[in-house]
Structure formats: structure tokens, C-alpha cells
TrEMBL record:
This is DUF4249 domain-containing protein. InterPro entries: DUF4249 (IPR025345). PROSITE patterns: PROKAR_LIPOPROTEIN. Pfam families: DUF4249 (PF14054). It comes from Aureicoccus marinus.
Length: 288
């Protein structure tokens, strides 16, 4: 008898829930997302920069590739600001949202002088400006034995030697969409070693690739904020406190491209960042 009564009560609860549950999800107009972080291996003579363009969709659909870019150009200027070289980027495959210049571009051209990115999409013009930022190599990458929060943690030990007499910023890419920002405030010009912990037990024989990128203050700050927001363990209905804005501007309504700030239109901007940085990589095979 108790079992029957419990089932009846449960049925009543379910029926009631069907009538009252209403979920209101966050709503925002679609926004362009431009991933223009160009990693440069200066040991190579040529490069084919890759830029990914997506657009935010509904709350549950995430981002969608953008294929209807009218024009995308990347220009490398002389130190005096005049034109030197430029490339026209085209979508590699229809529907991919990935854009490249079909022809390789000389790496040396990217290493000095301003770099200008311009994108035209649905009658809007987007503009960004940056300069190449060098990095240092990874001296040593090895597996450690320590753990941080769980026995399943995997420790990797990284060592670099900082360039002296200048302020340096670095962005580490540990794979699995895990990044770390580092400033040389306390180890300027010195050899620096630190541990990074993956919060899971990696498989024996698994190959890891860790890379280090140079960064200027703007890119460092952007990545730091991005890491802080994406590492919060919130529920699926939790939205970021603030949108992380990059250095790409909507300049459609500005008089000229020398003005790279739209303070009069604070809500008109794409997401993403434009940076051209030196990258070094190191590989590690996970041991038992």
C-alpha cells in the first residue's frame, strides 16, 4: 500500500511541475567572434596565417562558423606606417569559418612595423592593429610526481630563461584549452621554473605539447581575464559577469581608421583578439 501511495504522490508532483516550470535563458544579439591569434615560428621562412571567424548564436547553440565575409586583409606596414606587404585571406573550405591566404607569406615581413587587420562583414567594417611580440624558448619540460588537489592530478615542470632588462609577458598553452599567463615581475632576466597541474590522470604514453607565446600588456590582460571567466565552475545557466573585450573594433561609423576606439558606441564591438606572437613548443610523453 505504501508503494502505491508513493507512486501516486510522485505522479502528482510530476504533473504539477509540467505546468509551472519556465526557463528564461540569457538573450543577446548575435556578435562576431574573431580569433586572430597568429603564432609565428621565426625559424620558418614562410607562414600561412589562419584566422577563425564565428558568430554567437542562441544560448544553447554556442557559436557558428561565419562564411559570408566580404573581405579580409592583413597588411604589414613599414615603421613609418606606409604599406609594405598585404595578404587577402579566403575561406579554406565552405562553411568552415577558417580563413587563410592561399599563398605563403614571408615571416620576416611580420617581425617589424605595425600590422593591420581589416574585415568586412554584412556592411560592417572591423579594424585591429598590433605588432609582433617575441618570446623565449622552453628550456625544459618534464613530468613531476607531486599533486595539487587530487591524486589524479598530473604535474608538469616548465623552465624558461627570461630576457633581461625589459618587461616581458608570456602566455602558455598547455593543450585541452588550458592556458596560463605569466609576467616576469619577480624573475626578470633569470631562469624561472614552475609546476602546472592537469586536474586529471593522463594516460601512460600520451603525448603532450606545451607552447609559450610572447605577449604585450594588452594581450596578457585579455588572456588573464578570459582564463578567469572560463575557469569558473558555474552551472549552465550562469553567465559571465562581463564580456571580455579584445582589441578589434567596429569602425564602420568612424571617420577614418586612425581612430581605433568607439567610445561613443560602447555596445558596438566584436569579440576576439588580434595578436602576432612568436611561439616555441616542447613535447612530453607521459610516463607511468
Amino acid at each position: 500500500m505504501r508503494r502505491i501511495l508513493a507512486l501516486v504522490l510522485l505522479a502528482g508532483v510530476v504533473t504539477a511541475c509540467e505546468d509551472v516550470i519556465e526557463v528564461e535563458v540569457p538573450s543577446e544579439a548575435p556578435r562576431l567572434v574573431i580569433d586572430a591569434i597568429i603564432r609565428v615560428d621565426t625559424r620558418q621562412a614562410f607562414i600561412q596565417p589562419e584566422i577563425r571567424v564565428t558568430q554567437t548564436a542562441s544560448f544553447f547553440d554556442g557559436v557558428q562558423p561565419v562564411s559570408n565575409i566580404t573581405q579580409m586583409t592583413l597588411a604589414a606596414l613599414n615603421e613609418n606606417g606606409t604599406g609594405q606587404e598585404f595578404m587577402v585571406l579566403e575561406e579554406t573550405e565552405p562553411g568552415s569559418g577558417i580563413y587563410q591566404d592561399p599563398e605563403p607569406f614571408p615571416v620576416d615581413t611580420l617581425l617589424s612595423g605595425p600590422l593591420i587587420l581589416q574585415i568586412e562583414h554584412e556592411n560592417r567594417l572591423y579594424f585591429a592593429r598590433t605588432e609582433f611580440v617575441p618570446s623565449v624558448e622552453i628550456n625544459r619540460l618534464e613530468q613531476g610526481d607531486d599533486t595539487l588537489f587530487s591524486e589524479d592530478d598530473t604535474e608538469v615542470i616548465v623552465e624558461i630563461t627570461d630576457t633581461a632588462d625589459q618587461e616581458n609577458f608570456y602566455v602558455f598553452d598547455f593543450g585541452f584549452s588550458e592556458f596560463l599567463t605569466v609576467q616576469d615581475q619577480f624573475f626578470n632576466g633569470q631562469t624561472f621554473e614552475f609546476s602546472y597541474f592537469y586536474d586529471e590522470e593522463l594516460e601512460t604514453g600520451q603525448e603532450l605539447q606545451v607552447s609559450i607565446m610572447g605577449a604585450d600588456q594588452g594581450f596578457f590582460d585579455y588572456m588573464t581575464l578570459l582564463i578567469e571567466q572560463t575557469q569558473n565552475d558555474g552551472g549552465i545557466f550562469e553567465t559571465p559577469v562581463a564580456t571580455v573585450r579584445g582589441n578589434i573594433f567596429d569602425v564602420t561609423d568612424l571617420d577614418n581608421d586612425q581612430v581605433v576606439d568607439n567610445v561613443s558606441q560602447p555596445d558596438v564591438f566584436p569579440l576576439g583578439y588580434f595578436a602576432v606572437v612568436q611561439e616555441f613548443k616542447a613535447n612530453l610523453t607521459i610516463q607511468k
